[in-house]
Please model this.
Amino acid sequence: MFGRHIKKGTAGYMKKNLNLLALCAVLFLTLVQSAYASDGEGDGSGQGKGEPLTLTGTSIKDGIADGDMITLTFSNNVINSSVRENNKKAFILYDGDRGVVEIDVIMADEQIEPDAKRIISVRPVSGFSPGFEYTLFISKNIQAKNGAFAETDTEIRFFAPGPAPEETSAPAAVILPEAPSDDGDAAEEKVPEAGDGAPAASPALPAAREESRNPENNFANIPETENVPQSFADTGPRE
Model:
């Protein structure tokens, strides 16, 4: 009788222990699943390896970049060491003329900043030109830690912050006179027609030219020798 009572008590104790162990196992599996989801394999909404990688947000507001870089947020971990180098090659920045702009692709250290595992920033090396248009290309080859890829390439058009430089008008065209003809013929001067049989008058010339035509006027203003100092009037040989 006593032995049966001890045996019954031992069975009840073991049953309670088994129930406790089962509860601990369920809690452990729940914690592991939560850690698995928060590590970039999902976002807690059921999105896992079977879902494509998607872009969920950017720092571009109303078509204008917010600051000196573009910050991109994805649905999964895109900075893990297993995909880090691949994803650095997934971005191209074009200017308004479709020229390639040199960029830095910035990723946090997952071990130091685990909350930034879905974030990648793109910054032009020489900065944005205020008010200019740019296009950010994101390749569909960008990959998440869980192996998911984007379904398609993505292009984002935006403008750099700040006013665009004012356009300067082109200088007015300068019309140059025509070059003289090569036949060597001098242009004929037009002489006024003579009226009522009067001889044609020579065209008026400046005073300096008129004086040069009259030999008597060439020296009219030069004082006579007697009024000139001796040093200038004596032109004979000196002893």
DSSP finds five helices and eight strands in the chain. The two ends are 175 Å apart (CA to CA). The first strand starts at residue 55 and ends at 58.
